[in-house]
Amino acid sequence: AKDDSRGSVYEFEPEFAYNAKAKYLLEQDLMSALDKNEFVLYYQVQQNLSTGSVAGYEALMRWQHPTKGLVSPADFIPLAEETGLIVQMGRWALKQAARDFGGKDNNTRVAVNVSPVQFRESNLIEDIQQALAEYDLAPEQLEIEITEDVLIEDNSNTLNILEGIRELGVGLSLDDFGAGYSSLGYLTRYPFSKLKIDRYFIDQMIRDERSQSLVKSILSLASNMGMKVTAEGVETPEQLDLLIKSNCDEVQGYLLGRPEPFSKINR
Ligand code: C2E
Ligand code: CA
Ligand code: CA
Ligand code: CA
Protein backbone atom coordinates (compact mmCIF):
# COMPACT_ATOMS: atom_id res chain seq x y z
CA ALA A 1 0.00 0.00 0.00
CA LYS A 2 2.89 2.27 0.81
CA ASP A 3 4.41 1.69 -2.60
CA ASP A 4 1.11 2.34 -4.27
CA SER A 5 0.61 5.77 -2.77
CA ARG A 6 4.14 6.83 -3.54
CA GLY A 7 4.26 8.36 -6.95
CA SER A 8 0.54 7.99 -7.39
CA VAL A 9 -1.59 11.07 -7.51
CA TYR A 10 -4.73 9.10 -6.83
CA GLU A 11 -4.60 9.53 -3.07
CA PHE A 12 -4.36 13.26 -3.37
CA GLU A 13 -6.80 13.61 -6.17
CA PRO A 14 -9.98 14.08 -4.10
CA GLU A 15 -8.41 16.91 -2.17
CA PHE A 16 -6.94 18.42 -5.32
CA ALA A 17 -10.29 18.19 -7.06
CA TYR A 18 -11.97 19.78 -4.08
CA ASN A 19 -9.53 22.68 -4.05
CA ALA A 20 -9.82 23.20 -7.77
CA LYS A 21 -13.58 23.10 -7.52
CA ALA A 22 -13.67 25.48 -4.56
CA LYS A 23 -11.41 27.87 -6.41
CA TYR A 24 -13.52 27.65 -9.53
CA LEU A 25 -16.67 28.42 -7.54
CA LEU A 26 -15.05 31.35 -5.77
CA GLU A 27 -13.81 32.69 -9.09
CA GLN A 28 -17.34 32.51 -10.55
CA ASP A 29 -18.61 34.20 -7.41
CA LEU A 30 -16.04 37.00 -7.69
CA MET A 31 -16.94 37.64 -11.31
CA SER A 32 -20.62 37.94 -10.49
CA ALA A 33 -19.76 40.11 -7.46
CA LEU A 34 -18.08 42.58 -9.84
CA ASP A 35 -21.14 42.54 -12.07
CA LYS A 36 -23.52 42.98 -9.19
CA ASN A 37 -21.44 45.64 -7.52
CA GLU A 38 -21.01 43.71 -4.27
CA PHE A 39 -17.60 45.13 -3.39
CA VAL A 40 -17.42 48.05 -0.99
CA LEU A 41 -14.65 50.24 0.30
CA TYR A 42 -14.26 50.73 4.02
CA TYR A 43 -12.12 53.63 5.18
CA GLN A 44 -9.70 53.74 8.11
CA VAL A 45 -8.56 57.07 9.48
CA GLN A 46 -4.91 58.13 9.48
CA GLN A 47 -4.09 60.79 12.02
CA ASN A 48 -1.46 63.47 11.74
CA LEU A 49 0.50 63.57 15.02
CA SER A 50 1.78 67.14 14.78
CA THR A 51 -1.65 68.67 14.21
CA GLY A 52 -3.77 65.98 15.86
CA SER A 53 -6.18 66.14 12.94
CA VAL A 54 -7.24 63.72 10.24
CA ALA A 55 -4.48 63.24 7.66
CA GLY A 56 -6.51 61.01 5.42
CA TYR A 57 -8.10 57.59 5.05
CA GLU A 58 -6.98 54.23 3.72
CA ALA A 59 -9.47 52.45 1.47
CA LEU A 60 -9.86 48.77 2.40
CA MET A 61 -11.93 46.49 0.23
CA ARG A 62 -14.75 44.32 1.56
CA TRP A 63 -17.12 41.98 -0.17
CA GLN A 64 -20.74 42.42 0.82
CA HIS A 65 -21.75 38.84 0.05
CA PRO A 66 -25.50 38.15 -0.24
CA THR A 67 -25.36 35.13 2.07
CA LYS A 68 -21.90 35.11 3.72
CA GLY A 69 -22.09 38.71 4.91
CA LEU A 70 -19.07 40.98 4.94
CA VAL A 71 -16.07 39.05 3.59
CA SER A 72 -12.55 40.23 4.45
CA PRO A 73 -9.98 40.85 1.71
CA ALA A 74 -7.70 38.10 3.03
CA ASP A 75 -10.37 35.63 1.87
CA PHE A 76 -10.68 36.82 -1.72
CA ILE A 77 -7.75 39.04 -2.78
CA PRO A 78 -5.27 36.12 -3.20
CA LEU A 79 -7.55 34.29 -5.65
CA ALA A 80 -8.45 37.56 -7.36
CA GLU A 81 -4.71 38.05 -7.93
CA GLU A 82 -4.21 34.49 -9.13
CA THR A 83 -7.03 34.78 -11.66
CA GLY A 84 -6.25 38.33 -12.75
CA LEU A 85 -9.68 39.56 -11.59
CA ILE A 86 -7.87 41.95 -9.26
CA VAL A 87 -7.21 44.16 -12.30
CA GLN A 88 -10.90 45.01 -12.66
CA MET A 89 -11.44 45.06 -8.91
CA GLY A 90 -8.50 47.40 -8.44
CA ARG A 91 -9.76 49.69 -11.19
CA TRP A 92 -13.15 49.74 -9.47
CA ALA A 93 -11.48 50.59 -6.11
CA LEU A 94 -9.60 53.53 -7.62
CA LYS A 95 -12.81 54.89 -9.12
CA GLN A 96 -14.86 54.34 -5.99
CA ALA A 97 -12.29 56.09 -3.79
CA ALA A 98 -12.17 58.99 -6.25
CA ARG A 99 -15.96 59.12 -6.33
CA ASP A 100 -16.11 59.25 -2.53
CA PHE A 101 -13.36 61.85 -2.04
CA GLY A 102 -13.55 63.85 -5.26
CA GLY A 103 -15.23 67.17 -5.90
CA LYS A 104 -14.51 70.79 -5.17
CA ASP A 105 -15.51 70.76 -1.53
CA ASN A 106 -13.38 67.84 -0.47
CA ASN A 107 -9.63 68.04 0.16
CA THR A 108 -9.31 64.91 2.23
CA ARG A 109 -6.61 62.46 1.19
CA VAL A 110 -7.35 58.85 0.37
CA ALA A 111 -4.92 55.94 0.05
CA VAL A 112 -5.67 53.03 -2.28
CA ASN A 113 -3.92 49.65 -2.23
CA VAL A 114 -2.61 48.42 -5.57
CA SER A 115 -1.68 44.81 -6.34
CA PRO A 116 1.49 43.74 -8.20
CA VAL A 117 -0.80 42.19 -10.81
CA GLN A 118 -2.14 45.64 -11.69
CA PHE A 119 1.43 46.68 -12.51
CA ARG A 120 1.93 43.75 -14.83
CA GLU A 121 -1.46 43.44 -16.46
CA SER A 122 -3.01 46.86 -16.74
CA ASN A 123 -2.21 50.40 -17.64
CA LEU A 124 -2.13 51.64 -14.07
CA ILE A 125 -1.19 55.22 -14.89
CA GLU A 126 -4.11 55.49 -17.28
CA ASP A 127 -6.48 54.00 -14.69
CA ILE A 128 -5.30 56.53 -12.10
CA GLN A 129 -5.58 59.46 -14.50
CA GLN A 130 -9.09 58.42 -15.48
CA ALA A 131 -10.25 58.10 -11.88
CA LEU A 132 -8.80 61.53 -11.00
CA ALA A 133 -10.36 63.21 -14.01
CA GLU A 134 -13.73 61.51 -13.85
CA TYR A 135 -14.42 62.40 -10.23
CA ASP A 136 -12.41 65.60 -9.89
CA LEU A 137 -10.01 64.22 -7.31
CA ALA A 138 -6.86 66.35 -7.00
CA PRO A 139 -3.66 64.31 -7.48
CA GLU A 140 -2.40 65.44 -4.06
CA GLN A 141 -5.48 63.85 -2.53
CA LEU A 142 -4.50 60.41 -3.77
CA GLU A 143 -1.91 58.03 -2.39
CA ILE A 144 -1.04 54.66 -3.90
CA GLU A 145 0.05 51.95 -1.46
CA ILE A 146 2.21 49.12 -2.73
CA THR A 147 4.11 46.34 -1.01
CA GLU A 148 7.62 45.27 -1.89
CA ASP A 149 6.11 42.39 -3.92
CA VAL A 150 5.76 44.96 -6.69
CA LEU A 151 9.50 45.64 -6.55
CA ILE A 152 10.74 42.07 -6.56
CA GLU A 153 10.82 41.86 -10.33
CA ASP A 154 12.82 45.06 -10.26
CA ASN A 155 12.43 45.88 -13.93
CA SER A 156 12.45 49.20 -15.72
CA ASN A 157 8.72 48.95 -16.35
CA THR A 158 8.01 49.00 -12.62
CA LEU A 159 10.29 51.98 -12.13
CA ASN A 160 8.62 53.83 -15.01
CA ILE A 161 5.16 53.28 -13.56
CA LEU A 162 6.23 54.39 -10.08
CA GLU A 163 7.87 57.52 -11.48
CA GLY A 164 4.78 58.12 -13.60
CA ILE A 165 2.62 58.02 -10.48
CA ARG A 166 4.82 60.61 -8.78
CA GLU A 167 4.87 62.79 -11.89
CA LEU A 168 1.08 62.95 -11.74
CA GLY A 169 1.51 64.47 -8.28
CA VAL A 170 0.09 61.37 -6.59
CA GLY A 171 1.70 60.04 -3.38
CA LEU A 172 3.43 56.68 -3.21
CA SER A 173 3.65 54.64 -0.01
CA LEU A 174 5.69 51.52 0.68
CA ASP A 175 3.32 49.36 2.73
CA ASP A 176 4.26 46.79 5.41
CA PHE A 177 7.75 48.25 5.61
CA GLY A 178 10.09 46.07 7.65
CA ALA A 179 8.12 42.87 7.10
CA GLY A 180 9.34 40.44 4.50
CA TYR A 181 12.60 41.03 2.74
CA SER A 182 12.64 44.80 2.66
CA SER A 183 15.78 45.96 1.02
CA LEU A 184 17.09 49.40 1.89
CA GLY A 185 18.11 49.65 -1.76
CA TYR A 186 14.42 49.99 -2.64
CA LEU A 187 14.41 53.33 -0.87
CA THR A 188 17.11 54.74 -3.12
CA ARG A 189 15.85 53.18 -6.34
CA TYR A 190 12.16 54.03 -6.11
CA PRO A 191 10.46 57.39 -5.53
CA PHE A 192 8.46 56.73 -2.37
CA SER A 193 6.91 59.66 -0.56
CA LYS A 194 6.01 57.60 2.50
CA LEU A 195 6.87 54.47 4.46
CA LYS A 196 4.25 52.56 6.40
CA ILE A 197 5.88 50.68 9.26
CA ASP A 198 4.44 47.20 9.54
CA ARG A 199 2.26 46.69 12.58
CA TYR A 200 4.48 43.87 13.81
CA PHE A 201 7.13 46.40 14.88
CA ILE A 202 4.57 48.74 16.42
CA ASP A 203 3.39 45.76 18.46
CA GLN A 204 6.94 44.69 19.42
CA MET A 205 8.32 48.11 20.20
CA ILE A 206 6.61 48.32 23.61
CA ARG A 207 8.27 45.19 25.00
CA ASP A 208 11.40 44.97 22.94
CA GLU A 209 14.09 47.65 22.95
CA ARG A 210 15.60 46.55 19.69
CA SER A 211 12.24 46.91 17.92
CA GLN A 212 11.92 50.34 19.47
CA SER A 213 15.37 51.28 18.17
CA LEU A 214 14.42 49.97 14.77
CA VAL A 215 11.27 52.09 14.65
CA LYS A 216 13.25 55.16 15.67
CA SER A 217 15.89 54.42 13.06
CA ILE A 218 13.27 54.05 10.34
CA LEU A 219 11.87 57.42 11.39
CA SER A 220 15.20 59.20 11.11
CA LEU A 221 16.14 57.37 7.92
CA ALA A 222 12.85 58.41 6.32
CA SER A 223 13.19 61.97 7.50
CA ASN A 224 16.72 62.19 6.09
CA MET A 225 15.45 60.88 2.78
CA GLY A 226 12.49 63.26 2.64
CA MET A 227 9.82 60.65 3.25
CA LYS A 228 6.93 60.68 5.71
CA VAL A 229 6.16 57.74 7.99
CA THR A 230 2.87 56.20 9.01
CA ALA A 231 2.84 53.70 11.88
CA GLU A 232 0.33 50.91 11.23
CA GLY A 233 -1.67 48.89 13.72
CA VAL A 234 -1.57 51.35 16.62
CA GLU A 235 -3.78 49.72 19.26
CA THR A 236 -2.69 51.11 22.64
CA PRO A 237 -2.10 54.54 24.23
CA GLU A 238 1.45 53.37 25.13
CA GLN A 239 2.26 52.81 21.47
CA LEU A 240 0.76 56.15 20.54
CA ASP A 241 2.77 57.94 23.26
CA LEU A 242 6.01 56.43 22.14
CA LEU A 243 5.29 57.31 18.50
CA ILE A 244 4.49 60.91 19.43
CA LYS A 245 7.77 61.15 21.39
CA SER A 246 9.65 59.67 18.43
CA ASN A 247 8.23 62.29 16.05
CA CYS A 248 6.34 59.86 13.88
CA ASP A 249 4.31 61.72 11.22
CA GLU A 250 1.08 59.75 11.10
CA VAL A 251 -0.63 56.88 12.89
CA GLN A 252 -3.28 54.40 11.86
CA GLY A 253 -4.86 51.63 13.91
CA TYR A 254 -7.81 50.45 15.94
CA LEU A 255 -6.97 52.96 18.71
CA LEU A 256 -7.71 55.82 16.30
CA GLY A 257 -10.50 54.10 14.42
CA ARG A 258 -11.60 50.92 12.69
CA PRO A 259 -12.26 50.73 8.97
CA GLU A 260 -15.82 51.98 8.39
CA PRO A 261 -18.17 52.52 5.47
CA PHE A 262 -17.87 55.93 3.82
CA SER A 263 -21.22 57.03 5.26
CA LYS A 264 -19.90 56.49 8.80
CA ILE A 265 -16.54 58.23 8.69
CA ASN A 266 -16.41 61.51 10.48
CA ARG A 267 -15.30 64.21 8.08
P1 C2E B 1 -2.96 46.40 4.57
O1 C2E B 1 -2.91 47.21 3.34
O2 C2E B 1 -1.70 46.26 5.34
O3 C2E B 1 -4.13 47.02 5.45
C1 C2E B 1 -4.08 47.12 6.86
C2 C2E B 1 -4.85 46.00 7.49
O4 C2E B 1 -4.69 46.04 8.91
C3 C2E B 1 -6.36 46.10 7.26
O5 C2E B 1 -6.88 44.77 7.20
C4 C2E B 1 -6.82 46.79 8.52
O6 C2E B 1 -8.20 46.57 8.80
C5 C2E B 1 -5.93 46.16 9.54
N1 C2E B 1 -5.74 46.99 10.72
C6 C2E B 1 -5.82 48.33 10.83
N2 C2E B 1 -5.55 48.74 12.08
C7 C2E B 1 -5.27 47.65 12.80
C8 C2E B 1 -4.92 47.42 14.17
O7 C2E B 1 -4.80 48.34 14.98
N3 C2E B 1 -4.69 46.12 14.53
C9 C2E B 1 -4.83 45.09 13.68
N4 C2E B 1 -4.61 43.86 14.14
N5 C2E B 1 -5.16 45.25 12.37
C10 C2E B 1 -5.38 46.52 11.94
P2 C2E B 1 -7.91 44.36 6.06
O8 C2E B 1 -8.86 45.48 5.79
O9 C2E B 1 -8.47 43.03 6.44
O10 C2E B 1 -7.01 44.20 4.78
C11 C2E B 1 -6.04 43.19 4.71
C12 C2E B 1 -5.16 43.35 3.49
O11 C2E B 1 -5.91 43.13 2.29
C13 C2E B 1 -4.58 44.76 3.35
O12 C2E B 1 -3.48 44.90 4.22
C14 C2E B 1 -4.19 44.74 1.88
O13 C2E B 1 -2.99 44.05 1.70
C15 C2E B 1 -5.32 43.90 1.28
N6 C2E B 1 -6.31 44.83 0.68
C16 C2E B 1 -7.36 45.46 1.26
N7 C2E B 1 -8.03 46.22 0.37
C17 C2E B 1 -7.37 46.10 -0.82
C18 C2E B 1 -7.56 46.63 -2.13
O14 C2E B 1 -8.47 47.44 -2.42
N8 C2E B 1 -6.68 46.23 -3.10
C19 C2E B 1 -5.66 45.35 -2.84
N9 C2E B 1 -4.83 45.00 -3.85
N10 C2E B 1 -5.44 44.84 -1.61
C20 C2E B 1 -6.29 45.20 -0.61
CA1 CA C 1 -10.82 68.30 -4.28
CA1 CA D 1 -2.21 49.20 2.84
CA1 CA E 1 0.06 47.47 5.80
Automatic annotation (TrEMBL):
Protein origin, superkingdom: Bacteria
Coiled coil: none
Domain EAL: 23-267
Shown residues within the full chain: 421 to 687 of 687
UniProt-recorded name of the protein: EAL domain-containing protein
